[in-house]
Design brief:
Distance between the termini: 13 Å
Strand content: over 45%
Strand order of the largest sheet: 1-24-23-22
Oligomer: single chain
Shape: globular
Helix content: under 10%
Length: about 270
């Protein structure tokens, strides 16, 4: 069953459920300002997390596993150029501080399930690569090293592996690797774009976005790439998948009703 949660139509992206499953965190473009917003599980109580400022857009937030902190990308604008850094704030939006300072483009913070490290994407060595850091932003370790861009990291529920998207084959495909960057495995083989993988909470399946049918749909597969099927199969653009913590509902963003709204799909086994 498909349920529409929001109806304002404004641009949205980067969905994530709070660890208790009561709220959704997402990027929203509202009145020309890009910032982090939340809503409740029904799409109500829509409100900004932080005060928005056109000079410092912020986006792509991620709850820490205990639900007390949010890591997010802050874009400090200098003229027409932006300097992306990763900040950390309390779950209510207070006490924002720098976690990963700007060295190039620092993006896509994703907490490891134990909360002790986070993965992120940086261009500090020339193109998009995946790194990890400890919870204070220190002990930065580089996991990927390829001429193709590597991005969209997502931790497995046990923290042992990361799924990610990479252009190393000439097309963006979905891969997994161990938490130290070894044992890289390619899961998809297309001539299209595949991106934004997310692990099911039980750790045996992945959902990701793919344009293999001409528009973005959400696809599900086993973690070895088998049993692939299209979950949304719609002519609209369906993106930003986010599993509810209990694993039976998948939230995503779609323009199927004209704007960019959040929907929820019940996913049967």
């Amino acid at each position: 069953m498909l349920t529409r949660l929001t109806r304002d139509g404004s641009f949205k992206q980067h969905l994530q459920w709070s660890p208790d499953g009561k709220r959704l965190l997402f990027t929203r473009l509202f009145k020309g300002k890009m910032g982090l917003w939340t809503c409740d599980a029904t799409g109500g109580d829509l409100k900004p997390l932080l005060a928005t400022d056109p000079r410092t857009p912020h986006f792509d937030g991620h709850f820490s596993p205990d639900g007390k902190k949010i890591a997010f990308v802050l874009d400090v604008l200098h003229g027409t150029d932006g300097k992306l850094q990763i900040n950390l704030c309390d779950a209510d939006g207070t006490n924002s501080k720098v976690l990963i300072p700007n060295k190039a483009f620092e993006e896509t913070p994703r907490w490891r399930p134990d909360g002790k490290r986070l993965a992120f994407v940086s261009t500090r060595h020339g193109n998009q690569e995946i790194y990890t850091a400890d919870a204070t932003g220190g002990d930065v370790q580089r996991l990927t090293n390829d001429n193709g861009a590597d991005n969209n990291p997502a931790w497995s529920p046990d923290g042992a592996r990361l799924a990610f998207a990479s252009g190393r084959s000439g097309h963006f495909e979905i891969y997994t690797m161990k938490a130290d960057g070894s044992d890289v495995r390619r899961l998809t083989r297309t001539t299209s774009v595949n991106s934004w993988p997310v692990w099911h909470p039980e750790g045996k399946r992945l959902v990701f976005c793919s344009r293999r049918t001409g528009n973005y749909d959400l696809w599900i597969m086993n973690t070895d790439g088998s049993k692939l099927r299209n979950l949304t199969d719609h002519e609209a653009q369906d993106t930003a998948p986010a599993w509810h913590p209990e694993g039976k509902r998948l939230a995503f963003v779609s323009d199927r009703d004209g704007g960019h709204d959040i929907y929820q799909l019940e996913v049967n086994e």
